[in-house]
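Dissemination and training. As part of the outreach component of the grant, students in the summer workshop were shown how a complex can be specified as a set of sequence lines and then modelled as a single object. The example used during the hands-on session is reproduced here so that future cohorts can follow it. Participants entered these lines:
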Amino acid sequence: MVGFIINRFIAMLLTLVAVSIVAFAIIQLPPGDYLTSYIAALSATGDQVDPRVIENLRNQYGLGEPFLVQYWKWITGIVQGNFGHSFEWKRPVWELIWGRLGYSILIEGMAVIVMWFIALPIGIYAAVRKYSLGDYLATVGGFIGLAIPNFFFALILMYLAYTWFGTTMGGLFSPQFENATWSLPRIWDFLGHAWAPVLVLATAGTAELIRILRANLLDELKKPYVVTARAKGLPEWKVVLKYPVRLALNPLVSTIGWLLPALVSGSVIVSVVMNLPTAGPMLLRSLTTQDMYLAGAIILLLSVLTVIGTLISDILLALIDPRIRYGSR
Amino acid sequence: MRKDNFFGLTAAVAMAAMMAAAGPALAQQQAPSLDELVSSGALPPVAERLPSNPLVLEGESVGKYGGTWRMGLNGGGDNGLIVKTVAYEGLVRYDHEWKTVLPNLAESWEVSPDAKEYTFKLREGVKWSDGTPFTTADIAFAVEMYQDPDYAAGSWMDNKNNPMTIKVIDDFNFTFIFEKPNGMFLETIAGVDGIHATSLQKNYCSQFHPTYNENAEADAKAAGFDSWALYLQDRCAWGWETIRFANPDLPSIYAWVIETPLTANAQRVTWKRNPYYWKTDAEGNQLPYIDNLDMRVSQGGVEELTLAALNGEIDFQERHIATTTNKPLFFDGQEAGGYHLGEVIPSASNTLVLQLNLNHLDPVKRELYNNKDFRIGISHAIDRQEIIDVVFTGQGEPFQVAPRPESQFYDEELAKQYTEFDPDAAAEHFAAAGLTEKNGDGIYLMSDGNPAKITVDVISALRPEWIDMLEIMQLQLAAAGVEIELNNIDRTLFYEKRPAGEFDAQVWAGDGGIEALQEPRYYFPFSDESVWAYRWAQWFNGTRPEIAEEPVDWAKQQMDLYNQVRAAGTPEERADLFNQILAITKEEFPVIGVSLMPNSYSIIRNNLKNAPESMFNAWLFPTPASMDPPVWYFE
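and obtained this result:
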């Protein structure tokens, strides 16, 4: 098991190096740089900027240097814990993103948990009672959740909250709690706001989970060991939960690593619409203004999350399915 | 006897009512929220905080103190809203009609006959929000900073085409001296650009500059910045940079000072009253009336702001939420939300300006686009009414790029020429431009045998209606024999393409509809925004000599006239010269417009008084700040 984890860990580091190069290159791909979009903004407001001033700034920011030099500066800084300065906010990147990433992980983590809570029982039920009315209802409900675009669902929720209750749903806190320290009332206020985005994000993934679980479980339920267990007189719930469900979970666990980035990228528009201070809107804005160190840091951290998620799913998989471990012996 | 009594009684009641009404207002002089600070000694009495000659703002009615003005920022980088709401405090300002220049921080001024020297007298006793006096030293410091090559900015103070120096006479009198005549200088600083000179407090900002603090470089390093310039920028910035509103320690002269700063993670930016604000109402009460500003920060989408406005959670706002598509929604929601709609007149003249690249590097296209008949042909081939009906629900009228009807430069002929939809006239003009043969798709062939296809660069993210309009124009022009290809691109690429000179056409809105004199980008090759003649504009400005091209004669004549405008001493002379420029524009017809930009609207809560029911909206005329929010109040 230890050897397995070490192997995985080395692969992880190599992946990260590759990802960081790709991330930095992608941010540099669009024409121009931060100063071009800065001039664009100034120019649109009727301001004339002397090209020599811009040249000065470009040197100050180190924007005129070749790609590899810029990348090397960036990555060596990151190794020392310095993610660089955000051009737009004139602040260290790290200071800007940690709070937002925290909220992202919190919201999206809650969404994953809610998703599993909804999907697992429905998936098991749908498999055990195949082609029953309940199976159809659950499946149709799940597909509706999958089919409605997240931002649209968010808009509908906001509109209904406004017309029915006269409240504007948005943000994660009421004004009086925005800058308060964590306390029970603040947590309560947070939950009062967070349920909506969590629900929106969770419904998007449930259908997929339900279908995977249902299909896997159907395969397992036909196998002889299940028939044997049932013949030996085990209670039905135990027959289903003890082994078939555990095996059916296998593909779900192995994709945990993809959940995090999928949720972060999937939540960008929801966050913009519902006004959530998560990493998504900041990533979007930093990309449009070409604030490259900020964008680079967010993309890199998302990649780190993916890689960590993959590691977690590998370990979990090794735990629930002993067959996986044979490979590393 | 009874009658006398009756009159005596009514008189007494009336007197009492008048005293009751006048009494508290006279007794107040300052916001009640400041009373305790003054009595505890933390703040000097109001008489010592006000200048000897405070600026008096007259609202429709005398207000009362208190309340919070709620509005919404779009995304974190929305410094524009803050500038347009609180930061418009220059030496001079505009009146509500955007016509005359009025005193602000300067109480009077004199202009030399050659329009090179401007001598200002500051209001004595104006104080920064930290209580220190506002003097000529602060103005001189701002000039010094803007002209410091290491502290790169861009402003009229460091304009290399007309270098400027400042001569300080005493604490309250100083002179700006320009190398060349600058007849429009007062209009320049009455606009939003004026705040450059009044935004840096020497006392606070000089501590980050090596001239005043020998440890400046070391301090910057210790604070984590690569150079003193970056540190100074972080602490003080320039007139309207986003980061100016991220530093609550920075003293200002605004009516409200920052309480919760604008940072990347701010969910709300709040402001509280500036106890040293230097304006009063007609009865001598210190302004502002409203205690606090509360700006919720959206994450870049305006859906939540729209709902908040509908729900009565926005007290006054135009920016972001007043879209054409939202108008019916806001109209229907007035009663439930407790607000009403005010009128907002845009400064832009046109919904869409089609700018053919007259400086195209391809000689065939250049020749064609420079042919006036070709442009007239296109203009006649556009059915403007159809576009107005489909895209703007009938709002607006066919219009060229010309000063708006509200402008003193309005010229109906210029605004309406070639706007009628007339396919026959279009065909005649195309023939006159040398387009006679068509290919199998019905598209004219240019002189090199290629079809007349124009690739139009557009940023639909900025104004979604541009794409809708262009798609209709695409069909209309195809029927007339000219093919349009839409090239929807990002803003950075849009700007990068300009110096290269290989784009066919770009579209933008018609800026300069009211502020035609200050923003003549479509009337002659004036600035980088004169995309239709980018290389000629470089010749005029001297900013990018490597790509500058000598303009044709008529453009040169306009540039010459505009230089005379700059040198002219009186508004009448300037207007006369500018009309000559517009006459050439009318003759040459450089860019093609579609329709008059329809009026917008503002959301005004019903209990908010003295707020403008009608106002202009422009960047150079920063609304609502130019409509004096300090005298607005909640009933």
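Chain B touches chain A through 61 residues (CB under 8 Å). Students were then asked to discuss how this feature might be tested experimentally.
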